[in-house]
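Saturday, quiet lab. Running sequence design on the structure tokens for the scaffold JK sent over.
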């Protein structure tokens, strides 16, 4: 195994708002790779300059970073320049997928369904946004994940405060109409969409705390949908990934309304790999252990 992959760096930690989650993801991936006999080493870009990867002769990189500085194309670009193959999507797809606004524009241009939205700033006509999108409204930073800085606005008077919170994380803030239905997530591995996971959070509140640090959220995998319906959603997810240029692996989040209409929410190009993460859960149902999943992802490391 050591000869097959060479010297491998697992990038985790970083300096984004999702550092804590990344530390958990990376530690799990590192342990799995080492257990499988891979010559894998921890590498935190917040503590060591990336050029050290080249100096120390790393042959490939497993990216377990989340958020800006790791999932947005910047690290991917640096690795391209150094000629070191890496897991996941390339520069362009990573950058677009990290930007919720531009992801929506690409999906809409391709005719794919996604909830209506508005961009918020200090000069926003708050009443007009409420009139257009209705209530509730989800307000979130355009370049953060893990529900960082996100608010579910249920009263018009809360909208400005929600924008102010999101603006602490990002200069670009998006408001999205609330679409009621089943919350689903669909991981993909190369050209294969894994089983969908249905997320049942307390009071529908799938926030940062309930994602990573509690056991009150229920995850159903298999998701319970009829086979034909799940296959149709898997095809939609694969198309949503392809139009963004994604490769390797990722995870699309979506809502399925009571009348069977799907809405794409966002694309994750470096999903969590923690004990609460959904890609490993889905992969397990598909017959892939966590260790086998990590090896499969590492095998797909590439440039360009």
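Result came back. Writing it out in full:
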């Amino acid at each position: 195994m050591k000869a097959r992959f060479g010297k491998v760096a697992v990038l985790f930690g970083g300096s984004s708002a999702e550092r804590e989650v990344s530390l958990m993801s990376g530690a799990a991936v590192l342990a799995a790779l080492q257990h499988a006999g891979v010559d894998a080493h921890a590498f935190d870009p917040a503590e060591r300059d990336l050029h050290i990867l080249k100096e120390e002769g790393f042959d490939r990189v497993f990216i377990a970073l989340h958020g800006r500085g790791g999932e947005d194309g910047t690290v991917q670009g640096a690795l391209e320049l150094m000629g070191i193959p890496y897991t996941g999507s390339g520069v362009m797809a990573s950058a677009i997928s990290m930007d919720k606004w531009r992801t929506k524009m690409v999906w809409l241009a391709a005719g794919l369904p996604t909830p209506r939205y508005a961009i918020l700033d200090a000069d926003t006509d708050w009443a007009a946004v409420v009139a257009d999108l209705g209530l509730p409204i989800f307000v979130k930073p355009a370049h953060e994940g893990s529900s960082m800085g996100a608010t579910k606005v249920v009263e018009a008077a809360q909208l400005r405060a929600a924008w102010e919170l999101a603006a602490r994380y990002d200069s670009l803030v998006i408001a999205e109409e609330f679409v009621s239905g089943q919350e689903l997530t669909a991981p993909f591995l190369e050209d294969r969409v894994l089983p969908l996971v249905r997320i049942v959070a307390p009071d529908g509140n799938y926030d940062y705390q309930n994602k990573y640090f509690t056991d009150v959220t229920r995850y159903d995998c298999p998701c319970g949908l009829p086979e034909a319906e799940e296959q149709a959603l898997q095809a939609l997810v694969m198309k949503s990934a392809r139009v963004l240029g994604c490769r390797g692996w990722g995870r699309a989040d979506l809502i399925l309304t009571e009348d069977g209409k799907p809405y794409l929410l966002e694309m994750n190009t470096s999903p969590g790999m923690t004990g609460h993460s959904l890609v490993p859960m889905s992969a397990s149902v598909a017959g892939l252990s966590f260790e086998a999943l990590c090896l499969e992802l590492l095998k797909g490391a590439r440039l360009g």
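Notes for JK: The chain has a mean pLDDT of 94. Residues 145 and 197 are 18 Å apart (CA to CA). Ask whether to fix the surface positions before the next round.
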